[in-house]
Amino acid sequence: MPTATWNGTVIAQSDDTVIVEGNHYFPADSIVAEYFEPSPTHSHCRWKGEASYKTIVVDGKRNPDAAWYYPDPKPKAAEIKDRFAFWKGVTVA
């Protein structure tokens, strides 16, 4: 089962991930919500649309904008709506 960890802690786990461009997108209900804080950061992908970000906080350590998701993706990326992907040192195995 794909598992996302950061700072030695499981932050998401699901056997229902969607892989796009080599990234596992986890369902929103599979993340451990207590480790995520809102972020004002956004970015734009030409074919997926506008991404929103969350900061991961575990044991007082912060990983700004290490999780992203598409709340309203373009039609070609509909399968990743509200799913979370990770970077910045988050391990998915």
From TrEMBL:
Sequence ranges assigned to domain DUF427 in this UniProt record: 4-88
Pfam family, any one: NTP_transf_9
Signal peptide bounds: none
InterPro entries named among the record's database cross-references: DUF427, DUF427_sf
Gene3D superfamilies the UniProt entry points to: Domain of unknown function (DUF427) (2.170.150.40)
Domain of life: Bacteria
PANTHER family registered for this protein in UniProt: DUF427 DOMAIN PROTEIN (AFU_ORTHOLOGUE AFUA_3G02220)
Protein name (database record): DUF427 domain-containing protein
